[in-house]
Design brief:
With 324 residues, the protein is of the alpha/beta class. The protein is 40% helix and 19% strand. It has helices spanning 25-33, 55-61, 63-70, 85-95, 114-121, 144-147, 184-190, 212-222, 246-268, 274-289, 291-297, 301-317, and strands at residues 12-18, 42-48, 75-79, 100-103, 108-110, 127-138, 164-167, 180-183, 226-239. Strands 1, 2, 3, 4, 5, 6, 7, 8 and 9 form a 9-stranded mixed beta sheet that branches. Helix 1 (25-33) links the parallel strand 1 and strand 2.
């Protein structure tokens, strides 16, 4: 491998936050080792988010790591002891050595042209954030009730094949972080990295709160930077069978609904008050009364009932506050 001190820095840093990802990481690293991008054009920063398994060892010793290093792609492991995807991503940006940063989750599999395509997208200097097209890769075929809600799994295939320009405004748009690319200087200007307590933490332990990805996109837009959806950037999101279990999906729905309410209250002034809670209570009551009819006429009725009730219950509980 060439001495990097004698070369220019990589053009992109691929940041992979992971908690207990020892089993998942090898597939991501293998996909990165197959990238068609020029040797040495990117680096990989694995952020170990307080894992209790062999994540750090895998990220240093996996066979794909040796292949990457043989291509002059540096692979580093950094630690972030604070639980949560937000502090892990911020740590990755701070530790990166490139102006372009790409976030991949430890269950995201990029296509071979992925990094090369990302570099081309950012040839346009006005682009500060780009969202990839994320397609689901199910371990087993999901039931209809989950297919209808697959957007809950950080996939955005519904956005289609057309490039979209979301502008440079503080608006809520679907900027999921799985496959999100950012300009490092824009991220550091827009995101209060030294005040993580002001941001949504993302998923922590069994809590499936989210919205931190939407918040990043909103803040970067609010800072005056352009955000786009670039469907030529394609990754697969591996979804294991355990994430199809009803109890998991119920927690996922509750976390997403309450996170959305939190974002709208925080940035759009949509204060959740007594009237909202009473309306949510009424909708919850209607859903309870409708359970016998849903049981008779809904396809995949048991899951449908559980998922509808989870959404109504989450609306009643409202935004994430001290109870989180």
């Amino acid at each position: 491998m060439r001495d990097r001190r004698q070369n220019s820095p990589p053009r992109a840093s691929v940041v992979i936050p992971t908690f207990n990802g020892a089993e998942r990481l090898p597939r991501v690293l293998a996909a990165l080792a197959e990238q068609t991008a020029e040797d040495g054009s990117f680096e990989v920063v694995v952020v170990d988010n307080a894992s209790t398994d062999a994540t750090a060892a895998v990220a240093q010793q996996d066979a794909s790591v040796q292949r990457l290093r043989g291509r002059d792609v540096e692979v580093r492991v950094v630690a972030e002891p604070r639980h949560g995807t937000t502090p892990a991503r911020i740590r990755g940006v701070l530790e990166s050595s490139s102006e372009l940063v790409c976030f991949l989750d430890d269950d995201n599999i990029p296509e071979p042209e992925y990094v090369a395509t990302g570099l081309l997208v950012f040839d346009d200097p006005s682009v500060a954030l780009a969202v990839s097209r994320v397609l689901p890769r199910w371990e087993i075929a999901p039931p209809p009730s989950i297919i209808r809600r697959q957007h809950l799994y950080a996939v955005n295939d519904y956005l289609g094949d057309s490039f979209a320009d979301w502008g440079a405004e503080g608006t809520i748009v679907p900027t999921i972080t799985a496959g999100m690319w950012v300009r490092r200087h824009a991220f550091l200007e827009a995101i209060p990295c030294d005040r993580i307590d002001l941001l949504l933490a993302g998923r922590v332990g069994r809590q499936l709160f989210c919205g931190e990805d939407i918040e990043i996109g909103l803040l970067i837009g609010k800072a005056g930077y352009r955000r786009v959806y670039a469907p030529a950037l394609r990754i697969a999101h591996e979804i294991p069978r355990r994430r199809l279990e009803t109890a998991y999906v119920v927690r996922l729905i509750e976390g997403i609904v309450r996170s959305e309410l939190t974002l709208r209250e925080k940035y759009e002034g949509a204060r959740f008050g007594l009237r909202d809670r009473m309306s949510a209570l009424m909708n919850l009551s209607v859903a309870l009364c409708g359970i016998p009819f849903m049981a008779l006429f809904k396809r995949d009725a048991r899951r449908e009932i559980a998922f509808i009730m989870a959404a109504r219950r989450a609306h009643f509980r409202g935004p994430i506050r001290s109870d989180a």
